[in-house]
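Question thread 4412

I'm putting together a teaching handout and wanted feedback from people who do this every day. The idea is simple: show students a protein as raw sequence, then show them the structure tokens that encode its fold, then repeat with a second protein so they can compare. Below is the first pair exactly as I plan to print it.
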Amino acid sequence: MKGVKARALRRTSGARFRAGLRQTGQALIFGLFALAGGLVALFFLFNTGQLTAEKTKLVNTADAVAYSAGVMHARALNFAAYTNRALIANEVLIAQAVSMTSWTHYVSTHAQNAPTLMWCRTQYSRPVALVLITYVPVCYLLSSPYGATTAQVLNQVVGPASQATVAASELAKQALQAAQANMAATLVPARAALMREVADANYVDDGSVHVDSIPLTDNFTLFQGAPFIKRNSGADRGRFKQTTLTAANLDQFIQERSWTSSNFFPCILGNKAEFRRRGGTELIGFDEWRAMDTASLHEWEWNIHLFSTSCDENETPIGYGAQGAGNGRNGGDNGFGGSRSDNSEASSYASSSTWQYSGLPSFFDLSDAALKAPQDSPPVLRFSIRLTRAKDDARTSEGSSNVKPSGRLARFDSNLASDVLAAVSTSEVFFRRPGPRSDGRTELASLFNPYWQVHLVATSSADIAQAIARGGAQ
């Protein structure tokens, strides 16, 4: 009985062993199929990951390139604004120089004439007798030895110093104009070099990337049919003149140096009198600054005629001074229309004393189209650029990667639809004042204030379509 059981057990064990051998062979075949599928999935995931990384890097590089170009645009506009403000300050300095020279010459002649014409070294001077209360202390001060000496020294020092200042200002003006012209001429090639440098810096030791030589949109060179900025000279310097006069007239000494001292007596008493101090500086046309200062005594005399009476005015010139800076294009007109000159001697001096001056400078401002933009839609400078990267440089299995599938696995490469990867980015330069104005008014875009900023914006559908239509590297 035991023998039968043993034989049955051996037969059962043999059958199980043979069945186990058959099951082991089936698992091997399944494993081979699973391994092949895993390799396919691995290559697919590898290429997908590499393509995603390539796309992200190319988009980030395009953003960096577009933003760098935008920063250059904003800096160029702000540079033009800073140099324009420097040119305006230069003009104000010239106006102050001619004003000071005219004023010191006036003070000097006034101090020379006051003792003899106004008797201001005596107790009973003409200003006292005529009750010109405001003028009395001025007359006595200028007639004193200390006042006369000081006035003479000032006149001898201020004149040459002011002339030297105007000459230095002329040199500074030429340098600022040259800097603006150089900026406008070199920006486009410098921008191309910068974009190339930024793109290469993002792909160090990682193949190459191409920046299109022709941007998709470039408002700096073409904004509504013309460049975004333009150089203004000749009769086009009106905006610069207006801005310069506004800045210069903030100094009341330049704008007007006038006051009057009157006694308000009636003419019939025979002692009506008035002291007039007149002075100011004006910009004549575009090419000449002129300053004039005068002082004169006006007395009225009651005269009885055969059939009428009259109150006649008599003028006594006391002090005078004038100074000009120009290039002679405005002729001999003193520019004051007689309103600031009370004697012919001052007018003669004004026409004979003029420093060499080239006139208001040429300057850069926004184009006519940009200046005409409505307040609710200020002008912006858009710039769109496309970057491309060759398929062979991408770190995929069919590109520069060391992982190279062969045989049937090669069918699972990334299979790009084009020979290049492309990315497009757009920057926008806009004008915005950092804080509100004190007068509550809106600051309009111009090249007189350095408030130009840059940010990235969404690329327009037209630029995207153009980028697709370009195909390979341009």
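The second pair follows. I'd like the answer to focus on this one:
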Amino acid sequence: MQLSDLIIDDRHHARFKVHRSAFVSDDILALEREHVFGKCWLYLGHTSELKKPGDFISRRVGGRPLLYTRDRENKLHALYNTCPHRGALVCRERAGNRRAFTCGYHAWTFDEKGRFIGMPGREALPPDATEDCKLDLVPVERMEEFKGFVFVCYDQSAMSLRDYLAGAAEYLEYVADQGRDGMEIVTGTQDYCVGANWKLLQENSADGYHGVPTHSTYFDYIRSRDNSTFSNMNSKGWVKNLGNGHAVSESIGLLPWGRPYARWAPGWGEEARHEVEALNKEIMERLGPERGNVVANGDRNLLIFPNLVVNDVMATTVRTFYPVRPDHMEVSAWCIAPAGESETSRDRRLRNFVEFLGPAGFATPDDVEMLELCQRGYANAASAPYNDLSRGMLSNAPTKTDELQMRTFWRRWHQLVSDNPALELTGP
């Protein structure tokens, strides 16, 4: 199989297909590690996760263990969590607050900026051993922040983060605008594994076509709880190509089952109506009616290539996923919320967070089952070799049940893994 044959992008006949070897091949995963995760901007964390000098988080990003720290001058750092001596992790804790990190193997010690502090038997090294940062922890090649979202890139020559985000930047600004006093990651992480290729979750995260058949139990529950009679839920709204492989699926006030930040829903009860309406009013006054309506009443699934999803439909969820093997991925998700919101608002938000997208919620177990069934089905790839993602190619206004967002991802993916910048990224 030639790399050029992995994608069939026939615009004349409105056919788009992905060869299933892209989901099962070790060779393709190796190309992804080099050309996708090794070249693209990847989400590291949020500025709010490190509130005080000395705060740190250790986190794997693109398969590489990193240290994310805030120093005593309040500057953020991204460091490779690897001792320059023998390569052991210098930090084994997931998070905390420290003035120094000591490698457990030979007790080499480093400060929160990654600078070498000392070691047992320092006299055994030449006097100039610490010059030119030779013994410091290695900083990640690039780290940049946008509206509180911190990204790293392992390619020193990559474009700036702002240019990379392209049209996705506007949607991250909508998230940031929800909080009058800024946004913060709520303490706690949802970590789980899925026995399927990582790209399947990227596809699924903004796939409106699967909603009604896959999540029928949830919609039955909502109809019963809210005494609703809504139908055709997932055709409402639209999708956009945001450039550089990013896409969004969105609507404004159309989804009766959505739970945006400041739009009241029957499931919250009448006791919540006054507070939610007050939140809506504050946003409208602060941002103006046009932008305020998008921020307060909008439903969005934002896909930032290659593997960041910001789901702004149920409660605002930030989710990443990385491959371990072609048929196995690790998923992490966080809830992001306005800083200083009331206890009642935070309680509603967290309930929505776990109710639908939590690992034991209504949606995630359904999605995991379907993705793993897809992965099992790819055992037949020799005889049934292609996935079809052609829905909406004939439409000038694709909806959430069309597949423009998937084609947007796959065109950028194909461009990178085949190392062919001439491949066209726009189109139906």
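Top answer:
Good format. For the second protein you could add a caption like this: The chain is about 25% helix and 25% strand. The first helix runs from residue 26 to 35.
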